[in-house]
Predict the structure.
Amino acid sequence: MNTQNSTDNQIVTISDPVTKTELIRALQKVGVTKNQIIEVHSSLSAFSYVIGGARTVVDALMEAVGEEGTILMPFQSSGNTEPSDWCNPAIVPELYSEIRSSIPSYHPLTSDIHGMGAIVENFVHRPGVQFSGHPNVSYAAWGRYARLLCNRQSTHFPLAEESPTARLYELKGKVLLLGTDFSKVTCMHLAEYRCDARPIQICGACVEGENGPEWKKYLDLEIDSDDFVKIRPVMIRKNMIRETMLSGCHIQFFSANDAVDIATRYFEKSGIYDLYR
């Protein structure tokens, strides 16, 4: 298949398109099996080309774990947040109130999930997918334990002990990275909560109330995933990560519990927020 680059008019030839069968084989190579519970982070553009696009990737994931397995994906609505926290671009303070009153209330099937990627957008519209329902940092899940994972997510501190993240840990789930790095591993935020590694902040989002949309404030930590990339070298040294390449895409597979536990120890030793302990 040939595609044309509109910038320099050079013809780009794709020589290694990915099929569903090839993707399943790659998943099995890193250790994905039936019945597993897997948090997935993905970038379709990391592959040179996938025949069928995001649909093929989601089909492959579902087939790889089977109906007795479970797939979990973060489903975050970045636009449904406190406007005073926005940056790149920032908003002038005079508009904060107007923006809060104009943001649509959260809905799992219609809310904008800008930046989450085509694979997530395809996944959330599949039959049987459950949603945890937080207006900003929700999760979507499919499979045997989907309802259990999404059954309860606290409005306050939404990635702490009352969250799909904590349920994933309790069920000894796995993490699959398709072309993304450790800074995207949402379950590792659990480590930040478990060791008080971050200060507390007041957040906000629009929810559907009894009388229509309403702005709701909630408490959360100032979570930051930048430190997560420091956990990967530790796990590599301990042979905790299985990885392969497929059509330019770096695939990594590892235990969620290992990642959270190592991150927790890291924050305990290097945390600078003793004031909040």
Observations:
- The first strand starts at residue 2 and ends at 4.
- Residues 1-6 have pLDDT under 50 and may be disordered.
- The chain has nine helices and eleven strands.
